[in-house]
Amino acid sequence: MKIDIQSLKKVFGDKTAVDIQQFQINHGDILGLVGNNGAGKTTLFRLMLDLLKAEEGRVLFTPSASIADNDETNVINPASSENWKPLTGAYIDDSFLIDFLTPEEYIDFIAKANGVKRIDWKHIDDPESPMAPFLAFTHGEIFGQKKLIRDFSAGNKQKVGIIAAMFTKPELLILDEPFNFLDPSGQNILKKLLLSYHASSQATILISSHNLQHTVEISSRVALMETGRIIEDINNRDGNAGKALEEYFMV
Ligand SMILES: Nc1ncnc2c1ncn2[C@@H]1O[C@H](COP(=O)(O)OP(=O)(O)OP(=O)(O)O)[C@@H](O)[C@H]1O
């Protein structure tokens, strides 16, 4: 999925939350979005996912099939088309979850909504199960617990949301602060999960984080946001974005 942000503006009262003239995210980028509190990261993701309406401008998605066919007629504007939904997985916060369901019921619901095959919960240990890649991440605490999502810890809720965003194998994956609430082993497993998912799918992955080290470790590109604008676009294919970021955030 390729993403074009064009003259995008979102205002709350007298506060400009997002104001991006032009920004392109290439198919297969892993883009780390960093910036201080209130920089506009979540608002940008919400605009992309049509959870908020922009005052001005637009975001356009070009699916990978259209890129391969050189067919720009299939460009999707999420504000006016639903075609992006089967191609996209996202987890912004726990409002994405359904509290009164178990994780299995919630994932069944997401599978149905996305038209993907229902999980065989008796055989999630089978290497062919869509849940198999996530078992180390769940640490035995998510599935088979007969517990409602509302009764899970913040970290385990976060894991349910991330798994639900990923298991449908979306070509665009958007995760807002996915390392939040996770214990150190959960954070490390998540980094490996994201990198192996990217290697096998070439998906476009957008992640916001306050953890500069994790961001630098997994991103091919880092965008630095401040007061709604993207003020730096750092190539991190050589893993060298860390220095620029540390200098920027040095107070
Ligand atoms: N629903 C809302 N109503 C009013 N103001 C909002 C709303 N959502 C966001 N804002 C404001 O927009 C600005 C950008 O907020 P946003 O949550 O996008 O930043 P962020 O970079 O994700 O911050 P953080 O790192 O703290 O999560 C902030 O000033 C915030 O207070």
UniProtKB/TrEMBL annotation:
Q: What is this protein called?
A: ABC transporter ATP-binding protein
Q: Which InterPro entries match?
A: AAA+_ATPase (IPR003593), ABC_transporter-like_ATP-bd (IPR003439), ABC_transporter-like_CS (IPR017871), ABC_Transporter_VariousFunc (IPR051782), P-loop_NTPase (IPR027417)
Q: Name any one GO molecular function.
A: ATP binding
Q: Which SMART domains match?
A: AAA
The ABC transporter domain is annotated at: 3-247
| Taxonomy, superkingdom | Bacteria
Q: Which CDD domains match?
A: ABC_DR_subfamily_A
Recorded source organism is: Hallella faecis
- Leader sequence range is none
* Entries under PROSITE patterns matching the protein: ABC_TRANSPORTER_1 (PS00211), ABC_TRANSPORTER_2 (PS50893)
Q: Which UniProt keywords apply?
A: ATP-binding, Nucleotide-binding, Transport
